[in-house]
Write a structure and sequence with these properties.
six-stranded parallel beta sheet; Quinone Oxidoreductase, Chain A, domain 1; globular; Rossmann fold; alpha/beta; 332 residues; homodimer; 2 domains; seven-stranded mixed beta sheet
Chain lengths: 332, 332
């Protein structure tokens, strides 16, 4: 059978553009033993995929030109030559950007969608929520009464990290890029304060004013000048988790900035670069708590859903212009 | 009685100069109850004192203009109105740069100089050795077979940190500023390799060649471009302890450099700013191990000793031009 797929047509310079992608029709192979034919329902698009569009970093698995992009997805099993899955099952896996695909049954995971919205398995109950939980609880170890700042606060990870910090008794300040997001963080998600960095001339002074006792924990999703502003307000013994650097992913040269090591030294700061994939043994505990909090109504979540397979490139590009609130998902 | 003292005459811009200090004669007060009259034997001069010569950093206890500099010192008790110390005792404490001084008996510590050279209590058995031990063992937690790079390798802390890492079974590479120091590190102190950064055009490439399996632990005493070169060679799950930033202490503006957070993120690096004063509960264990290793001949140490009280400013300034090997001490 034939399927549409979206491939990487050329490597982007700076923010990816529609022209860096190409849609084409291909013929799928027959499914073999231990394989399934899948019809994706939802695709997750995530900032970290941007790094994989370059071929400069040997430590990141780069996408190949003329080969399909890929990402976390939920899919329905249409046909099965697998002992594990039967037609009708819903599975989670990393899949190519195709309307249909043939996949090995290894690396797929059946999900039970009777308790929560199905898409939550790509968000608050997926790598997004797990990232927020482990980055905060296992790395930053926040204490009640401490002040936490989260950048990219209205993004998928930020919105969860901020709420979990509130559940730990922290004072939570979000940095975000629009007044709409700011109102949502404070009004709906219980953040104590939020700063719209786009309308704030001196973000470092705004943080100093709002965080009058300094910053104890910084959950960093964005990097760049926003991080400079937060780092200048860090307390002694503060902790910084570097979860993302979305402000820098599109740079074509190594970005320059103020050297931070003297601040880390003077304040005895711990800074940890954080790839959730290196913490798999902690996943079950994270999922346990996230599920419980959702069930108890203590943890809320938000999605921005684009409709239609063809919207995958636009949804992905939108991550870098800040169009999404919460998790960006494409419904095929 | 009268004594000479050396005061901060003016705040330095850049590297301190002799003119920033002034020697003067003052009259000491009579000693009161719980006080002692001390005659310093050795003064330690340390890079971190440079930060205290500025008045810009609220988190560092700044020296006052026209007031004496101070530092760790070993001194003989001359007269005593204290129940704790008697004349002839040798004590360790933080003392003003004076030939004689009157001090409270609080904060002084009696030392037993029968086992090791007295000056070792300012070096390998003092904060220097303790800093190397805790920075390495408690923060970097090196494993046998890992590759460790130490900058400022022939400095007081570096020379100890490198040897302790060797005792843990690490491959140890030192970065230093002269061929004489390089030969000493490899020939006398058992470093596996050393790099003279002053005669090496591309330090990052030299590290990449020597550390063919990458860098697992970076013990940073210097900061700046040398650190940039090491950081570009860090492995996944590597650890960086920021113990000093001597290359930057004399900057008059916040130094700029390549942003490091993306590297920390991509490599899941832990970076810890480290002030040994925040780890006092770990001191006894550090001293225990250091003493044992010295006794067993496994840990060697080196001092650069300037003779004469008047040499204090020159010795201190020499730290920033790299004249010292190992611990810089002034014998009064």
């Amino acid at each position: 059978m034939n399927t549409k797929q979206i491939v990487l047509a050329s490597r982007p310079k700076g923010i990816p553009q529609i022209k860096n992608f190409r849609t084409e029709l291909i013929e799928l192979p027959e499914i073999k033993t231990d394989e399934v034919l899948l019809k994706p329902i939802y695709f997750s698009v995530d900032p970290y995929l941007r790094s994989r569009m370059n071929d400069t970093k040997p430590d990141i698995q780069a996408f190949h030109i003329d080969q399909p992009m890929e990402g976390s997805a939920l899919a329905t099993v249409i046909e099965s030559e697998s002992d594990i899955f039967k037609p009708g099952d819903i599975v989670l896996g990393v899949l190519p950007w195709r309307e249909y695909t043939v996949a090995s049954d290894k690396g797929l995971q059946k999900v039970d969608a009777t308790q929560q919205p199905l898409s939550y398995f790509l968000g608050v109950l997926g790598l997004t929520g797990i990232t927020a939980y482990i980055g905060l609880m296992n790395i930053c170890k926040p204490l009640a009464g401490e002040t936490l700042v989260v950048s990219g606060a209205a993004g998928a990870v930020g919105i969860v990290a901020g709420q979990i910090a509130r559940l730990q008794g922290c004072r939570v300040v979000g940095i975000t890029g629009s007044d709409e997001k700011l109102r949502l963080l404070v009004g709906k998600y219980g953040f104590d304060e939020a700063i719209n960095y786009k309308t704030t001339t001196y973000v470092n002074k705004a943080i100093a004013t709002i965080c009058h006792d300094g910053v104890d924990v910084y959950f960093d999703n964005v990097g760049g000048q926003i991080s400079d502003a937060v780092i200048s307000n860090l307390n002694i013994h503060s902790r910084v988790v570097i979860c993302g650097q979305i402000a820098l992913y599109n740079n074509t040269e190594i970005p320059m900035g103020p050297r931070i090591q003297q601040t880390l030294l003077a304040k005895n700061v711990m800074m940890q670069g954080f790839n959730v994939g290196n913490y798999k043994s902690e996943f079950p505990e994270a999922i346990l708590h996230l599920t419980q909090w959702i069930k108890e109504g203590k943890l809320d979540f938000q999605e921005t859903i684009y409709e239609g397979f063809d919207q995958l490139p636009a949804a992905f590009i939108g991550l870098f212009t800040g169009v999404n609130i919460g998790k960006m998902i494409v419904k095929v």
